[in-house]
Every structure is written in C-alpha cells, then in structure tokens.
Amino acid sequence: MADSETNTASGDDAPKRPEPSGNVDPASMTQISAKETLDVRSAKKTSIPEGLWLRCPGCDKMLFRKAMEANLHVCPECGHHFRISATERIRQLCDVKSFEPRRWKLEGADPLNFIDLKPYPDRLAKEQEKTGQPEAIQAGRAFIKGRPVALCCLDLTFMMGSMGSVVGEAITRSIEFATDRELPLIIVSCSGGARMQEGALSLMQMAKTSAALARFDDAGGLFISLLTDPTTGGVTASFAMLGDVILAEPGALIGFAGPRVIKQTIRQDLPEGFQRAEQLLDVGMVDRVVPRSELRNEIARIIDYAGK
Cys-Cys with 286: which of 76, 127, 280, 302 at CB 3.0–4.6 Å? Predict the structure, then answer.
C-alpha cells in the first residue's frame, strides 16, 4: 500500500493545495515545501555483499571471510577450525598439482527404493549437481611434502559425508591400491556416519573397509587416520579408529552417537568438551591433536619415522 501522503487523486475528490494568503507565515510555507520534498525522496540504502563477513562460532566475533580463508579456514582470533570440503582439504594437504584422482566409475544404486522427503536417486542427483562430485569421497594418489601417499578424503558437502556402498568401495579399493604399491595410506574422515538410505548395505561397508585394513596391516602398511569435525556413526566405528597413528584437528567432534542423543538417553548433563578431540586425547583414543597449519609437516614426519 502506498504512503497516503504521496497519493495523487483526480477529479473533484482531489485534495486542494491551500492558496497562499496574506496572513500566512513564509516560514511555515518553507516547512511545508521541505516536508513534501522529504516524503517523495527515496531513502539511501547501503548494501553489503552477502557472505563478505561471517560470525565465528568459537569466539562469536565477526570475521572477514577472505582473511579466514587465507588462514586455512581457521579463525585468526580463537583458532576455531571451520569445516571444509574434500577439494579444499586436498588443496591444503597435497603438494601443488600432485593429486591424481582415481576414477572407478562407481555409481550409487537404490536397492531399497528409499524415499524420505524425496526419492534417493533424486537426492543423489541434487547433491551431484550442488557439489560437482559423483559421491561423498575423493580418492587418489598424491605427494605430501614430497612423500608419495594414497589419499582418501570424505566430503562433508555431499550428504554430510555419509558412507554408502560407493564410498565404502572407493575406500576399499584405495586401501588395496596402497597395499599393492606399498604406499602410506591417509584417510581424512569427515562424516555423519553410515548412509541411512542404503540400510544394511551401508553398514556392510564397515566390515569391508576394516577387513581391507587388516590385510593392509599384515602387509606392513602405514595407515594415518585424520579425524576432523565431525567424525561420527559407522565411520568412527570402523576405519576411522583403526589407524596406526590417529590424528585429530582441534575441537573436532568425534564419537558414535552424538552428544544430544547421549544426553537424552542418560538424562544427565555431559561434561564440558565431551566427545571433542582434546578429551579423546586425554583418554588415549587419539594420538595427537594437530592444528591445520601443522598437518602437512606432521604427516611427513610420521612417514619418515615409519620408514615409508
């Protein structure tokens, strides 16, 4: 609805502007003219590009996005580690242009004809369009500070990095690739767990990947598991916790069931820092908590120490 003071009308119903008379104060006429001018003048608007600033969930301060990204997606104020995609993770870990992706042309199926808010095939197609990736994992061969490795990175941007049949098969083939070529194996876990749309088939990936790692260990391979925020569910219950060396990023949520579910189940308040990387380090489930800026050096140091 338009402002009543700026409406125009025609005919006999149109309001008549008062004619000036001899007893009208000139100052009041000036005020009327100024008011009419202000009513029709468009207000100034200052637009800020969306996404230029963001609030850090760690310290609640406003951060300039480009400064945060230049700092490896870590808050320069409090050190909070933001979640990143598999593509960004590969860029940060690997030597420049050294990553060689392995494509097995694996495609997800829908054996259960699963439908939640939408059919599972439609959900997969939407995620593929959004991320530009066929599945929730990127795997291949790379160099980290000159050391050749087999690398798998789960992708949180694709269905929360959940592990379905394709992800499990890709991890298994990467383990076998590392076994055949005697390469150190690096798996970066970042996942909500097994993919519910595939039911028991996704749970079978836990046993399959664990069996492949057992063969890799028998062959004398080195497996470095890197846990990032979040690592939960069936991923935690399988390959993520089977590393010869288990590293974690600061503040990463690591567990099977999430803290909210546990709190509702036991009906008790949880201690501060529950299921975070630092707490798991204290109880011996994680070997080291390593800031993102030191990961490349730490991985290279472990490979050298193991003689790989």
Answer: 280
